[in-house]
């Protein structure tokens, strides 16, 4: 249900108090803060709950939804962490005009993403082979 929402480009109201945000805007703002902080664990969920006028459980649900969102767009909270660290690292290198180092970081990330995709394809193939073997076993 929430997987169709692009939280990274969702509008965050500037003229509205955080406790009045819709859940979509709240998640977009939390995602922005995670990216800024560099890691989801850097945010205190109880404090976020108070700020947004909602429960800590709702914030925890928001974190899980954001992890799913990042996983769909790039593996759960690990992918969210990796994306935030990468963005922050790249931004810092570019600000310091360390262009060669920034290029290496981008190349390494692209290699990592390719390896991830290759692994997913292998897992899918293994699953298909297992299913075929199970079907053959019960014929």
Automatic annotation (TrEMBL):
Q: Which residues form a coiled coil?
A: 109-139
Q: Which UniProt keywords apply?
A: Coiled coil
Question: Upper lineage ranks?
Answer: Archaea, Methanobacteriati, Methanobacteriota, Stenosarchaea group, Halobacteria
- The species this protein belongs to is Halopelagius fulvigenes
Q: What is this protein called?
A: HTH domain-containing protein
Keyword Coiled coil listed? The answer is yes
Lineage, top-rank taxon, reads Archaea
């Amino acid at each position: 249900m929430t997987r169709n929402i692009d939280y990274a480009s969702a509008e965050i109201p500037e003229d509205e108090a955080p406790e009045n945000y819709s859940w979509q805007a709240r998640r977009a703002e939390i995602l922005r803060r995670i990216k800024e902080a560099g890691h989801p664990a850097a945010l205190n969920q109880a404090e976020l709950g108070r700020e947004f006028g909602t429960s800590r459980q709702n914030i925890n649900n928001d974190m899980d939804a954001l992890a799913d969102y990042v996983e769909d767009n790039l593996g759960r909270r690990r992918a969210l962490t990796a994306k935030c660290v990468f963005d922050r690292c790249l931004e810092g290198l570019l600000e310091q005009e360390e262009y060669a180092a920034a290029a290496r970081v981008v190349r390494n990330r692209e290699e990592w993403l390719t390896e991830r995709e290759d692994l997913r394809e292998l897992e899918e193939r293994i699953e298909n082979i297992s299913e075929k073997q199970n079907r053959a076993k019960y014929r």
